[in-house]
Amino acid sequence: MVVTYVTGMLVTLLILSSLISNGIFTTKIKIRSIIIQNAYASDRHTNELSNASSSTSNTSLSLVERIPLPNVTGRIDHLGADKKGERLFVAELGNNSVDIIDLREGKRISSITTGRNEPQGIAFIPELNRLFVANRADGSVNIFDGKTFTLLQTIRLNGDADNIRYDSNNGLIYVGYGNGGLAVINAASGEKLGNIQLPGHPESFQLEKFGNKVFVNLPDDNSIIVADKKNLKITSKWTLTSARENFPMALDEGNHRLFVGFRDPAKVIVYDTESGREAASFNTAKDVDDIFYDAVNKLIYISGGEGAVDIFKQRDMDHYDLVNRILSAQGARTSLFVPELNQLYLAVPEHRGQEAQIQIYEVGC
Prior knowledge:
- With 365 residues, this protein is mainly β.
- It has two domains: 2-56, no CATH class; 61-363, Methylamine Dehydrogenase, Chain H (7 Propeller).
- The protein is 13% helix and 49% strand.
- The strands form seven sheets. The chain has a four-stranded antiparallel β-sheet with strand order 1-28-27-26, with no helix packed on it.
- A hairpin with a 1-residue loop joins strand 19 (257-264) and strand 20 (266-272).
- The two termini are 22 Å apart.
């Protein structure tokens, strides 16, 4: 950019010199005016290029670290994060354990091997310093102390406790479980307050932050359920016809858009949350299990078990472009995006001599 600027200045001076020698310009004021205009045009061009560069610089993920998980075998399910303490919690269903990762040190610092029964869902509640873990085998939800990891309480649900979400607005924990239920639990007391009855086992679900809707994937029922968080009643059901096996889900509440990942075929369908209509769709990596919407950079991150992380750019609420596909590892389908730390964490299971690990990707690095 500096070379362009200097070259432009020299060309201008040569032209002016010729003009002056022919008596066309004779005042310093006119000379200075032309030089300033040329310099301004050069600066403007430089700024435009700089702005264009900055607008596209955050469309990538860069692998910055690998944290090994020694002796962890089998399927790794969901992840949770302590954003302030910079800790990552890993639900290792196949290994029947929960690992705690120190992200500052880049290493595992502890493992929970008691009070767990095929852990799947996981959520850390910072204001209570408590860790909630949902178990598949017996449908229990364990509550652990966030410092000592002592088991404080166990809540019994009706089998296959899975995804967990925390609503910080009202201090409530929501847990999908069994053949069709969304349990509502007081995070502070551990008391089960209610239940949303569903016509099938819930996979990923999303809660509105500024509204009362909860959206729930029901792959066994080929549907998406919309329910009311206040009265715990179903308000609508969207029957799926163009794709099957809807597992992951993410929400762009501001634009009223719901991103739902399908495995058959491998694609994401974008729904209008007000009407349930299909607003857009795009093909993705196979065996998707997690989707995250990055509201700051207008990006969607999708992790697929075939060994890829797809990144799509949101041009507007109904148009999306694939901007990058990152090859990861076979079976690495669960992930967690933490916008406060500007990082995506990908769980890589042990596979044919490949040691289990957490891969850390920096956004826009």
